[in-house]
Amino acid sequence: MSGLRAWSARQYWPAFFYLLPAAVFYTLFVLRPLGQTAWVSLFTWDGITEGRWVGADNYSALLDDGRIPSAIAHSLVFVVFYAVFPVALGLFLAALMSRIRVRGLSFFRAVLFLPQILATVVVAVSWRWIYDIDGPLNAGLRAVGLGSLARAWLGDYDTALPAVGIVGTWVMYGLCMVLFLAGVQKIPTELYESARLDGCGPIREFFTVTLPALRGEIAIALVLTITYALRNFDLVWNTTAGGPGTSTTVPSVFVYQGAFLTHEVGSAAAISVCLTAVVLVVTGVIMRLVRGKEG
Amino acid sequence: MPSNSRRQTVIGHAILAVAALVALYPFLSVLLLAFGEPGTRTSGFSIPTSISFDNFTEAWRRGLFSDALTSSLIVAAAVVIGTIVLAVLASYALAFFPFPLKGPMLGLLLIGLVMPYEATVIPLYYQLKDWGLVNTYWALILPQIGLSLPFAVFWMRTFFVSTPPALREAAAVDGASRLRTLRSVLLPMATPAIGTLATLLFLFAWNEFLLALVLVPDNRSVQTAPLALSFFAGNRRNSDPGVTAAAAVLVALPVLISYIALQRRMISGMLAGAVKE
């Protein structure tokens, strides 16, 4: 009771008056669905009739499901294309331009950022045209006498996965370049001068000055690109929908298909729980690594 | 030494120019295709000799894009307004009022910031179906307000914390109530921050795809522009790439126009928003 009296005496209630509307929306449309996803994942449910409690069976079934390992493998390939390549490209450019004042930075920034603001569906339609059998890529190959390589890149079992991956690299490299160039311009030139006095070559200079100074930017880039690669529903669904066959399936495609097309809601919820957990853990680990080094 | 750094300058800017061209090329080739004659397949390396709007009229006629663009506008505007009103109130309290459990509350918001939409979309569908809201604007507006709140609250809280305390103290000395202080002292200062936030929320809401696919799948009159484009491009009968390209340009146009006008603000906002994560 004394807690309650302290409560009213300190007048906490105005704070809750301001918080209430947001709290209602956040609870109804984020926290409650989040909990329900976890709850539903413990049932066999077709979305219509009464569900049947199965405990962790949906999760153990995932371990036996042959589709899951390949979907995880595809996700890892996408992490390479969406995160590793763009970050490497951005770092290469940052290293090259670390002591150079970039001319026209605001123009380059605006252009390089364009892929970030286009709707993923628009990006997908653009690249479907580029990869089309009559599209620019094949036209270019034919023009240089490599017409034998021409194919429907998104419809070919061998090329569909890297083709979607390259779209991801395209979406993300500009963001990484803009982030790292902005970061590298903030590094005090004295650091580079003293590195040079110590006899550092360009490579040692990169590892002793540039890379540590960009730690924060790299962490942000990795969080953004890796989480995008792990979710990746919009791009995959609108380019290949997981096909041809199962050559570009990712877990989020199974979440959508299971929940809304094939009526295996419990199992789809289990995949969604695992996906969410992986995204939260990866984000947490990257941020923790950065903070740990700073502290 | 100077010649070396000069070479670096040239190579660096050359790489930047190539990178910029590559970033532009896919959308440019779609533009060329869309403005070409219907039925022709411009390869994208040749400069077109004539400009035709036939693909656009065809896409407009077949894809119900006037409905889709209107729907997107209604949904995005409602999400922006709703989110900002709720986020301003909540972040004001989170920034300045002392109350218990503030830390855990911010932690819960952080989960919502990082979590993928896939985590909530299944129960959201059944919940909204129970309420009879699936295939209505509400099915897109209400959840997106909730899902946008973490970003908006952290954004506004960072702004409020950065305002000088002397202003609030002066307002308190003058006998202004909490709501009065917010309305007459803090909000006028917050206009630029709210403007950037509104632009970003509008962009996210305009481009959202998964929620639209799940929550308004069967009612063409409330479909948003990206969803209409996805269905249009996926339909085998619309196999003319020129018409599909025109549809893509129609969907991208409002965002592109606002990007050209507000790009500085949008880029720094997206980078700053990311940094705050």
Give the SSE layout.
The complex is a heterodimer of chains A (295) and B (277).
Chain A: H1 2-9, H2 13-40, E1 43-44, E2 52-53, H3 57-64, H4 67-96, H5 105-112, H6 114-117, H7 120-130, H8 136-143, H9 160-184, H10 189-197, H11 202-213, H12 215-231, H13 233-239, H14 251-260, H15 265-294
Antiparallel strand pairs in A: 1-2
Chain B: H1 2-35, H2 54-63, H3 65-96, H4 102-114, H5 121-130, H6 137-162, H7 165-173, H8 178-207, H9 210-215, H10 225-234, H11 241-276
Helix pairs in contact in B: 1-11, 2-11, 3-6, 3-8, 3-10, 4-6, 6-8, 7-8, 8-11, 10-11
Domain ABC transmembrane type-1 (chain B): 69-262
Subcellular location (chain B): Cell membrane
Membrane topology (chain B): Multi-pass membrane protein
List its salient traits.
heterodimer, A: 295 residues, mainly alpha, MetI-like fold, two-stranded antiparallel sheet, 2 strands, B: mainly alpha, 78% helix, MetI-like_sf (chain A), cell membrane (chain A), ABC_transporter_permease (chain A), MetI-like (chain A), transmembrane (chain A)
What does this 3D model show about the protein?
The complex is a heterodimer of chains A (295) and B (277). Chain A has 295 residues and is mainly alpha-helical. Chain A has a single domain (52-294), classed as MetI-like (MetI-like fold, Orthogonal Bundle). Chain A is built from 15 helices and 2 strands. In chain A, a hairpin with a 7-residue loop joins strand 1 (43-44) and strand 2 (52-53). The longest helix of chain A has 30 residues, at 67-96. The radius of gyration of chain A is 24 Å and the shape is globular. Chain A starts with a helix and ends with a helix. The model of chain A has no long low-confidence stretch (mean pLDDT 90). With 277 residues, chain B is mostly helical. Chain B has 2 domains: 2-52, no CATH class; 64-224 and 251-276, Orthogonal Bundle (MetI-like fold). In chain B, 78% of the residues lie in helices and 0% in strands. Chain B is built from 11 helices and no strands. Chain B has helices spanning 2-35, 54-63, 65-96, 102-114, 121-130, 137-162, 165-173, 178-207, 210-215, 225-234, 241-276. The longest helix of chain B is centred in the C-terminal third of the chain and has 36 residues, at 241-276. At the A-B interface, helix 2, helix 4, helix 5, helix 6 and helix 7 of A face helix 1, helix 3, helix 4, helix 5 and helix 6 of B.
